[in-house]
Design goal:
By secondary structure, this protein is an alpha/beta fold. It has twelve helices and eleven strands. Strands 3, 4, 5, 6, 9, 10 and 11 form a seven-stranded mixed beta sheet that branches. Strands 1-2 form a two-stranded antiparallel sheet. Strands 7-8 form a two-stranded parallel ribbon. Helix 1 crosses helix 3 and helix 5 packs across helix 12.
């Protein structure tokens, strides 16, 4: 594309809006990055399309698809507009990095790993939640990086495996001793029928998966205690409420100190893969790249 093919007399703000939509993949996702409302972004793109006399984006049920003309225009504009943005931002504090993921993992693994970056000036805005809601919020532009236990569907969001989380069957020493002394101690599943079960959800997703993958059986027991999150499960089991299945990252300290006991040590414990997902266009903030790279490096030791 030559410079003569640029929309005549195009306003710089319109070109910035175009590039933001191009990178974000939707009007909705681009709006918070620009500090504009979604209707304003839509109106600006329509104005630019009228000036250019060509359609820039094909509207899809979710997001937009750049036309060939938009690809060419973005290739011409990206360098100059990024250089201009760098000049405007020179000497200013980098924008905060919006990071989200499971609350327990954020507290135990993620935030400790990012302490050096915070001390070096990186600002974080951290949100906890479940995978699907967090990914939907990312598609709407709310998060730069999301750590999730599920790979996002489709190709709109880029993701890489971050680490494998190991799950352990644990109880307090008192209950562990009772299991060892049970009349059917040679059958752990049978011995555990007399031990209260603690979980964070009525459908027992983690414990059911452990029974299915390790014991090859369907879990038929019901929870004695249901609590809001895995931190509460850990607290209840540590206090002696019963047994549960917990991620190693959350309970390793308790195992090392003897406050919890490992009830079973299978050759292949259940693993849950963690994925690091990055919002399209988030890499225009250098702080996002620093957080992303630091997490990938730290996760090698998780």
């Amino acid at each position: 594309m030559t410079k003569q093919q640029l929309p005549p007399h195009a306003d710089l703000n319109l070109l910035r809006t175009f590039l933001a939509v191009y990178r974000a993949g939707s009007f909705t996702a681009a709006a918070p990055r620009l500090g504009l409302s979604q209707p304003t972004v839509t109106a600006q793109i329509r104005t630019l399309e009228q000036q250019a006399g060509r359609e820039l984006f094909t509207r899809l049920p979710r997001g937009v698809e750049p036309t060939p003309y938009a690809h060419e225009l973005a290739g011409q504009l990206a360098g100059p507009l990024d250089a201009l943005a760098a000049l405007e931002d020179a000497g200013e504090t980098l924008a905060p990095v919006h990071l989200a993921g499971p609350s327990e993992l954020l507290c135990v693994r993620v935030l400790p790993a990012l302490v050096p970056l915070v001390a070096d000036g990186v600002r974080l805005r951290v949100t906890q939640g479940l995978p699907e809601p967090l990914l939907e919020e990312m598609r709407a532009g709310r998060h730069d990086l999301v750590i999730t236990t599920r790979r996002p569907r489709g190709r709109a969001l880029e993701s890489v495996p971050l680490a494998d989380e190991e799950y352990l069957l644990v109880a307090s020493p008192v209950w562990a001793e009772r299991v060892e002394q049970h009349a059917r101690a040679d059958d752990l599943c049978a011995a555990l029928r007399d031990v209260p079960m603690v979980t964070y959800a009525e459908d027992l997703p983690i414990v059911r998966r452990y029974w299915r993958s390790v014991f090859g059986k369907q879990l038929t027991a019901r929870a004695a205690v249901t609590v809001p999150n895995l931190y509460a499960v850990l607290s209840a089991v540590n206090a002696g409420a019963g047994f549960s299945v917990l991620p190693r990252s959350l309970c390793q300290e308790y195992l090392d100190s003897g406050r919890l006991v490992l009830l079973h040590d299978p050759e292949e414990p259940p693993l849950n893969t963690l994925f690091l997902v990055q919002r399209p266009g988030a890499d225009t903030n250098p702080a996002v790249l620093r957080v992303r790279d630091r997490l990938r490096q730290a996760a090698r030791e998780w």
